[in-house]
Write a structure and sequence with these properties.
The chain has helices spanning about 1-35, 35-60, 60-65, 75-105, 110-115, 120-125, 130-135, 140-165, 170-190, 200-235, 235-270, 275-305, 305-310, 320-330, 335-345, 350-370, 375-400, 405-435, 440-460, 465-470. It is mainly α and about 500 residues long.
Length: about 500
């Protein structure tokens, strides 16, 4: 039963992410032609603070609900009202801070933008638990039905506002409409409704696990967004817009896929939290399949970044090409970070999760303190070093908790990494040397790269390759209720 629901969850979550990415990509293409880098820069400036406020609103309670073995109405009621209360608190803090944020950036428009965009925090607080209930049940199909129309309608509205000369307000409207519609659709489609009960004992139980995740998430968000804050304050809104735009494209290709895998494997493997051997085998297969799929996506995006920008975006966005390429390289180990951190959450070690987060943030700020002196490119090269260094503590605790050591993980993902690096390296140099039209380069090198990648993976028996196609064929799901004893080469 767990096997069938997990595979179904992976399918619907990937379909959701693919559909949302397709819509987001189309909207981004249109908005890039209608807006300026400065408009995206203003959004980047305020998103730092709105995202942190959203983290305060959620406070790890959703993850605690998902992980809890048994939940009842009192648990859900308590979590629901706690999220709304925290959402109100977070919004008022954001509202009062808006003038100071504007003063920091020396940009008067920021005050109103923060206060309007900050309403997203309030709206999201009303559907956090609906989403948690669906995730616990591995019901990602219903979440797909809610998220796709929300993304589509909000995208249409944003393009209309941009076409009408709304500038940065098109991006703000898109955020608000997407959150509002998603909340409305989830309430309409999902059966759970809150009742008038609240249990402080339940809140203490949820928060004792969740607050460490919140602190870790808060630190991660600060560290992640500190780059935009530093770039905007030193180099200006236009450069921040280019950086933010490249980051947005990278997210469409990479981050959403990783989140899809995290979203499904966390609740599914939480049910095996007391069975270390099966948990290790499950995570091993997740790592193999994830890296087999994502490594070529990441490296080919970097290799084909130049023709992609030539085809899709006006010339004013071309400085972001190098940013995107470096971001892709820095993101190569991101799937491994996510998988290892999920192990800590599944095992209930939010204390270790927080400790690792603190350690990695110290590394983040230390590297940034040195790298910002070399401009945006220096900052991105610093992120590459950080990605490698931060992987070590993540994998260390996976060894301690489920005996999945760093050496074992490297053996599992390294073949896919080498093959994808070779294929993408050839594609990159082919782009530099050829004189084909950009669209033909994307199609030719993209298709040939994908075909040769799969062929080489079959030839060299890359573990994730066989697992992936067996999963797709329905014969060998990534996560099974009874894990096989088979060893992978």
């Amino acid at each position: 039963m767990l096997r069938a629901r997990t595979v179904s969850g992976i399918f619907w979550t990937f379909l959701e992410q693919a559909s949302k990415r397709g819509i987001s990509l189309l909207v981004t293409l249109l908005l890039a032609r209608l807006l300026l880098p400065e408009d995206f820069g203003l959004l980047a400036m305020i998103s730092v603070f709105v995202t942190i406020a959203s983290s305060l609103m959620e406070s790890g309670i959703k993850q605690a609900v998902i992980r809890k073995k048994v939940v009842d109405q009192d648990d859900l009621n308590t979590a629901f009202y706690a999220n709304i209360s925290l959402g109100i608190l977070a919004y008022f803090i954001l509202y009062g801070s808006a003038p100071y944020i504007a003063s920091f950036y020396d940009e008067e428009r920021i005050t109103l933008l923060v206060r309007v965009a900050g309403m997203v925090v309030l709206i999201n607080s009303f559907h956090i638990i609906q989403s948690a209930v669906l995730t616990r049940d591995l019901n990602f199909r219903l979440q797909l039905k809610a998220s796709i129309p929300a993304s589509f309608i909000s995208g249409i509205v944003a393009v209309f506002v941009a076409y009408s000369g709304g500038g940065v307000w098109a991006l703000i409207v898109q955020l608000l409409f997407n959150s509002l519609l998603l909340a409305a659709f989830l309430w309409w489609m999902q059966n759970w409704r809150p009742s008038l009960s609240f249990d402080f004992k339940v809140l203490k139980e949820l928060y004792s696990f969740g607050y460490k995740l919140f602190l870790a998430s808060f630190l991660s968000l600060v560290a992640k967004n500190i780059y935009v804050l530093v770039i905007a304050s030193i180099f200006g809104a236009a450069v921040a817009g280019l950086y933010y735009f490249a980051h947005r494209i990278k997210e469409l290709v990479i981050d959403q896929l990783v989140r899809a895998i995290q979203k499904v494997t966390y609740p599914a493997l939480s049910k095996l939290q007391d069975e270390d051997e099966r948990l290790k085998e499950g995570y091993r297969k997740v790592l193999c399949v994830t890296t087999f799929v994502l490594f070529p996506c990441i490296t080919m995006t970097a290799a084909l970044a130049s023709p992609i920008f030539e085809v899709a975006f006006p010339d004013r966005w071309s400085p972001a090409i190098a940013y995107l390429q470096l971001m892709c390289i820095a993101s190569l180990l991101y799937p491994l970070h996510a998988i290892n951190l999920n192990i800590l959450k599944v095992k209930g070690r939010s204390d270790l999760y927080l400790g690792i987060s603190v350690f990695k943030k110290i590394m983040t700020f230390s590297i940034l303190f040195v790298s910002y002196r070399f401009g945006v490119v220096g900052i991105l090269i610093g992120q590459i070093f950080l990605g490698v260094l931060a992987y070590l503590p993540n994998s260390y605790y996976s060894d301690k908790l489920i005996s999945y050591s760093t050496v074992e993980q490297v053996k599992d993902f390294f073949p896919a990494f080498i093959v994808s690096a070779i294929i993408s390296g050839v594609a990159f140099w082919a782009v530099q040397l050829s004189y084909f039209p950009p669209l033909l380069e994307i199609l030719l090198y993209g298709v040939l790269g994908g075909v040769f990648y799969i062929l080489l993976c079959f030839v060299f028996k890359v573990p994730g390759c066989g697992l992936f196609f067996e999963m797709v064929g329905g014969r060998f799901p990534v996560i099974r209720k009874v894990m096989p004893k088979r060893r992978h080469a």
